[in-house]
User: Fold these one by one.
Assistant:
Number 1:
Amino acid sequence: MERDGPGDDEPTSGGLGSGDDSTGGYQPERLCYDGERVVERTPLGSGWAAVTTHRVLAYQPTVDGRRFEAIDRPNVSGVTVDAAGERRLLGWGLRAAVYGLAGFGGGIALRAMDLQSTLTVDAGAEAAPVGSVLAVTDALASALALLTTLLLVGGVGLVVGALGLLARYLRTRRTALVVERFGDDPVRLSAARSDGERAATALSAALER
């Protein structure tokens, strides 16, 4: 089907006109498919968000990253405002911290038990067998030493990674208009609290029509 706008990709200037408003001429009516019409439009920061008969559209010309979002209307489960940040980063950070602390603790416990020295002493005792048994105990001692090192280094690495993820999560904790989607991650749109709440109210009402 031929359409007037770029759909799910970021809009381009060709054929849209320069316009004299803050959105640079990218109006929701100009981005609709044939037969699609705008049901509701609301300001969103320096741009706008809109509900059409087919989709939820949003354009923010001053944000970093994607400026234009288009979500098929049947996939939208709701529109809310929150400042929770990227929950995936929080989940990954917490899991990495738990695994890292567990690994580091296991390494400390193995080092405190000093099983390598115990195996070496037992193998060198007068009553101890020689030959292949001694080789096995030496291999076990080496394996325990390697495991201890891996647990300590891996644990520290995971904790450092967890701190990095949690730092990134904290940077994403800013107020956003959130378009929830069935079976997919939500789309977060940067917005001030009052601006986002007004947009959420208007878009939610339009989606119920």
Number 2:
Amino acid sequence: MYTAHPTHRQQEILDALRRAGGSLRVQRLASDLDVSEETVRRNLKRLAEAGHVEKMHGGARLADMGGEGDFQHRLRIATGAKQRIARHVAAMIPDGGSVFLDVGSTTSYIADALRDHAGLLVVTNSVSVAFKLSTRGGNQVYMAGGALRAHDGGAFGAEALAFAGNFKTDLAVLSTAGITARNGFMLFDLEEANFSRAIIQGAARRIVAADSSKFGRAAPITLCDPSLIGTLVSDAAPPADLSAAAAEWGTEIEVAGT
């Protein structure tokens, strides 16, 4: 069975499927991505073999993982890389510190890596993070109110934004859908971006935790001025253009060990 991480082209196809609500025809994918239909079919075949999509007559849809499918699906992608990043970030957080963890799949792994920490004050809008850390080590966990999204268990909306304004944490650990030298850290969802921006305002230090598949990947919404991000933690060094841009932003790059 084909198990490698999606290539850049395959990730573009997955992103297009997500934006379209989960399914598209081959002809539409080819048009949207400005490639041949044969290129789309070839990459869909590989994605299907890896379990990322299900082929349909004339098109494809994202693999059905149930009620929280999208989040569970992301947890299964680049698992080893995300776990290395998680251990690295956890080592940056002292016992008794205060930290915000968002709703990303990598931050869920960071919550796992914090299982032996004690006395943390954790602020989150993720049901997964809150569940993992609320009953361990004498932690105080504050969970955002508001409507919970079915696909990732994240709390968003006006109540969540008001909640974010209450906290001044030592550290904010944030996710990103893509990172480009031109636009910095990017997301697909405006609610996520607005919530993260509110958290950033109250954090003394800001970290983006992202595996290397995010390098060079674009999304429609910028997270923030990239100079606000002090550290990028990934599983590999970024390409030269992104490294140069990070130096201009003043963002330190840390590569998680094996």
Number 3:
Amino acid sequence: MPMDPKQIGQAYDRITHLWTRDEFDRTNGVAQHERAFAFTDKRGAALDVGCGCNGRFEALLLQHGFTPEGLDISARMIELARSPELHR
């Protein structure tokens, strides 16, 4: 049975801790984003759908001249993304 958005958010709430561990590979997915940037010379607003809590793609987008805005379905991910402790 398919999950509705609320259930998906709750499922991610339960595994949020995996993205905050020291062992989390913050380089995962970066090379793919770098290749995608090569397809355009335009910069500006960028929507990071499923942004999560650690800001790794936000920083990458900023480095490449984008103005990112994050969106996530997990309340816990958003809570942590706003937390100053996570971004020290």
Number 4:
Amino acid sequence: MDFLNHLDQLSIDVSQIDKELFTRFDVKRGLRNQNGSGVLVGLTNIGDVVGYEKEGDKVIPAHGRLYYRGLEVTELVKGFQQDGRHGYDETVFLLLSGKLPTKDELMRFTSYLAGLRDLPQYFTKNMILSLRGRNIMNMLARSALVLYTMDDYAEDHSHMNVLRQSLNLIAKFPVITAYSYFGFRHSYQRKSLIIRHPEPGLSTAENFLYMIKGDRYTRLEADILDLNLVLHAEHGGGNNSTFTTRVVSSAGTDTYSTIAAALGSLKGFLHGGANLQVVEMIRDIKKNVKDWTDKNELSEYLLKILHGHAGDGSGKIYGIGHAIYTLSDPRAILLKQKAKELADEKGKMDEFSLYDNIEQLAPEVLAKFKGGDNVKIVSPNVDFYSGFVYRCIDLPMELYTPIFAVSRMAGWCAHRIEEITSSSKRIIRPAYKNVYGQVEYENLEERTR
């Protein structure tokens, strides 16, 4: 153990890099420009995330817009909600094909996905229920790799075959996620093992709720889960898990290895786990703020959080701010509208009001905390309300990030297809400058440290 501690300290020491060197060599840390915008590293036809306008090197805040294949997501959502139907299958079709489906195409596409959902019995028994894990995201990554062994054409990178693989993953992952949860629950929480087979006549959202809750879900719960799936399906090529998808795809590997890598990225608490942090923050606020309606008391506690004297000590108000969106996140706006309906249905309007008050107060508190004239404009992101929605639906926290994965599978697959099809395909290989310097070799007997 002493030797391991010694090695640990050596590893820490050698991993330190003088922050001044990043400035001297103009390193784009996190692939970000000095003004916070992302470094342009690729082109895509799939998604576009707009949160600001640029005038030279200056960033001008703007209300957020999210486009799927050129169609603003707000208009997409308005369309299927006005028709009183669910929109996730339609969104998948749009992302993969580049167009909205006709009525006949949508019916055939939905039927095709429904026919792929069921898992082979041996896969469920041997790969999910027998090999349980403490984190469902890791179980999903393992399942993706096991699907490779079941595919006779796993290494066929032709467009048609990758499309086939993509549709199979999109259809099966809600089922794999539900079964993985019950395997986890049975093993680590000592609760009943429940397996419900997907129903062909239900939408993706309805099926997922049915597999998790049986018939104990409302129409509004299904509507809002469907909305969440649509809003998380794609977010441009630069988000961490999608960029991972493109990086790994550019190396020429198979679809299943690519998706396993994307899942590993999404598992990270700085990416897919953000809504969990919001839920924990709200739980802490409810515990320590006596009057949720007292904006002065709430502001003072938010300021304590920013100073690192409250909450988890991170100094962050989770769910507020985004890498691209400034004045607003269109996903948060759409989700908040439905979240209010759900809160009313579930008798949780007092808690919804707490979220609303934090949303209103956070920018002002952040400005007070940072001071000066160059305070970044912030607004709530989609994670701010998604955790609240899942709690209202009574979904376990272990499923929050896996549901994100179920949804984003559509975007990952679309970007993989584009990456391996694009005429400009080259392996993605950014540069890292070595700043360690050079040393002379020493004979073993001469080494004193």
